[in-house]
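Dear Dr. H.,

I hope your travels went smoothly. While you were away I took the liberty of generating a structure for the chain from your last submission, since the lab meeting agenda had it listed for discussion. I wanted you to have the full record in hand beforehand rather than looking at slides cold. The sequence, exactly as received, is reproduced here:
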Amino acid sequence: MPWIILILSGALEAVWAAALHRAAQVSGRRRIAPAALFLAAVAASTGGLAVAMQAIPTGTAYAVWVGVGVVLTSAYAMVTRVERPTAARLLLLSGIAACVVGLKVVA
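The corresponding predicted structure, in token form, is as follows:
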């Protein structure tokens, strides 16, 4: 269960990163919704990380949390055309994903 919580918390990291980007883009009153999503996702993401760290070593948990967040945030940016999906970028993100899986295997 701690690993599931950790992976979901990493996914929420991608949510708060995207919400922060969106909050910075829009103007006026519409900025409230992405800002609220950002705050809720940050709280849930870090809370889930804290829970997972009770059973998973700190370094491993943090690396997996960040790795999941980086890969999903980058994937979202590519799907929404904020970033270009170059071969090098895809290869390097695949390497990060492989390292996250490797940390699970050896932990």
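Two observations you may find useful: The longest helix spans residues 2-25. DSSP finds four helices and no strands in the chain.

With kind regards,
E. W.
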